[in-house]
Queue: 2 jobs
Job 1
Amino acid sequence: MKNVTDSFASLGHWPSAGSFGLNTDILATNPINLSVVFGVLIYFGKGVLTDLLDNRKQRILSTIRNSEELRRGAIEQLEKARDHLRKAEREADEYRVLGYSDIERQRVGLIQATSDSLEQVKNDKNETLRLKHQKAIHQVRQKVFQQVLEGASGTLNHCWNSELHFRTISANIGILRTMEKREKKRMN
């Protein structure tokens, strides 16, 4: 410490002009040199450092604002995507419900159509059987009438004279034609 104070004390005493020397005492000259360098740096570098820090601050703030805007945009897009997803889920549910109800309606319709078809087949079968039965009865009646007529005609031919025979045949033919007309009406 004595050397430091001696350096400052020697500053007050200047040697005579013309002599210039180098102070080799590092401990005495270093704090002075450093204080001068720091003073010059602070005085001249303060503006540059302030500008650098201000630019850095502005870039950081700009990056933060951009990040906030991007975050808000991402949140909006996320909300839109969620709304779209909810809408799609509702539509899918509606389609599913409509599909199930449509399938159920088609199933009921098919069951009803099948039931109606079976009923119609049953009715057609019964009608066909009834018509075949009536046709068979009609054919049997015609054969019986034909046989009766032939038998009656044969009997009358042997027993009666021709005029009586002719009148009886004409009367029987008229009766048979009336019966045949009634039978045709009944068939229709």
Job 2
Amino acid sequence: MERFPADLCLKIFCLLDYQNLATAQQVCRKWKAMTSDNKIWSNLFKERWGSDHAMFYAPVDSKSWKDVYEVQDRCDRVGLGLKIIREGGDYYLVHQGEIQRHLGSRSQQNGANGCSLSSERHLIGETSVEEEKEPCLGILDKILFFIGDLEVASIYAKRCRVL
């Protein structure tokens, strides 16, 4: 593959399914760059969900077809709405297929007692990420904090609608 022209490599990668393409991305940096091509992911999306869905879900702004494919695949696997999912050893809060927040890991390795010493707080609708030092928080604590953040955002949204 190293001696093949890039166009020929792309044609070969276009023949792979999602799982084999994900495996090929892990081979080396060059393959990862080539398998992240929008044309490959656009074709995969159209094969799986059809051209009509592809027109409706076409990437917006800085999103790529790969991102759109992964979100749609996650929606198919876990459904719509607000869900807590586990992928590997990590837990995520997912809304409409988009990962909203990383809740934690089953095997946290940062602290001596198995707890992470820092966490990131993301609020839906905010663009900035605020990193803060906190005492050790478990997944349940993070879920409760997120629900509190969600309630505040909901109240704010209702106030904006009334005004």
